[in-house]
Design a protein that fits this description.
The chain contains 10 helices and 13 strands. By secondary structure, the chain is an alpha/beta fold.
């Protein structure tokens, strides 16, 4: 068994927290193993003044790390699953999914207002088309402002008045211990989360000795839910350029997947749900995607493609 493992990670505070969590878990389980972090600055981190939907999508947060993994510079990569495109480069696999953190979104306002209580004209900052679409669907009178940056940066911009409110992932806030006082966790039945939100994905080259080290971190129920969500993403051909959402829930031997396809202006939100045996997680995601595409999702996605 190898003595040293190198982890590729983004250099943001949240990404380093996640990579350090994996490092600690490995070192606790395998005495004598040395785990090193290898921070990589990705294109998504370098370009902060342009919406992700205009510069290539969330794949920009993993591209350079995957290149390091393929080159052998690192032995594994730790990602937020929601940043990982549906299709991985040849030779790489998302082999381990640890237990999921809270998958919901959190609204942060100046004075503790809920989404319903915010006055029309309130500037809500987000760079997520999914969050934009759902906010405008529920509150068309609000103003969406493009807000990029890591968790700290977006919280600071909200405090400084660049925007009046923002929405962030509960998982990131919890992991960093940064849950602000005026926070409201949004109902995940209405405000469906991003695909893979709250889950970590460990990407490898599939080397047996690395897989053996990582397997104790794998959480089967989370992996099944993420499999259904990512199958939905893959079948729709979606990316962060398309307002998609999906949430898988595993109970006993069954899985339920809720998902939506929306127009960026929030005027059309097509929702659906599919359930079945947990071992058919991939098929559940594919079936639900097919159904929502037929019900109008394909029209939304084709219209977005024409605008690119």
């Amino acid at each position: 068994m190898r003595k040293t493992i190198r982890i590729g990670t983004r250099s943001s505070a949240l990404a380093l927290w996640q990579a350090n969590w994996v490092k600690d878990q490995l070192e606790q389980r395998w005495p004598g193993l040395t785990v090193e972090l290898m921070p990589v600055q990705t294109s998504g981190d370098k370009i902060q003044n342009i919406a992700l939907s205009r510069i290539g999508g969330k794949g920009l947060f993993v591209k350079e790390i995957e290149e390091a993994l393929l080159a052998g510079t690192v032995d594994l990569a730790v990602h937020s699953v929601k940043d990982v495109p549906a299709d991985l480069p040849a030779g790489l696999t998302l082999s381990v999914i640890p237990r999921r953190e809270d998958h919901r979104d959190v609204l942060i306002t100046r004075n503790g207002e809920t989404l319903d209580e915010l006055p029309d004209g309130t500037r809500l900052g987000t760079s997520s088309l999914r969050r934009q679409a759902l906010v405008l669907h529920l509150r068309p009178g609000l103003r969406i402002e493009m807000l990029r940056g890591n968790v700290d940066t977006r919280l600071r911009k909200q405090r400084e008045g660049v925007v009046d409110a923002t929405i962030l992932a509960a998982a990131g806030l919890a992991r960093l211990g940064l849950m602000p006082e005026h926070s409201h966790v949004l109902d995940d039945q209405i405000f469906l989360p991003a695909i893979g939100q709250g889950a970590l994905g460990i990407e490898t080259r599939g080397e047996p000795e690395v897989e053996e080290l990582l397997q104790p971190l794998h959480h089967v129920e989370t992996a099944l839910a993420v499999t259904a969500e990512r199958a939905f993403l893959r079948r729709t051909g979606g990316s962060c350029r398309t307002p998609l959402a999906a949430k898988g829930t595993v109970h006993n031997a069954s899985i339920t997947l809720s998902a939506l396809i929306a127009s960026p202006d929030g005027q059309r939100v097509i929702r659906g749900q599919e359930a079945g045996a947990s071992e058919t997680a991939e098929q559940i995601g594919m079936r639900l995607a097919e159904r929502l595409l037929v019900q109008g999702g394909r029209e939304i996605l084709e219209h977005l493609a024409q605008e690119e």
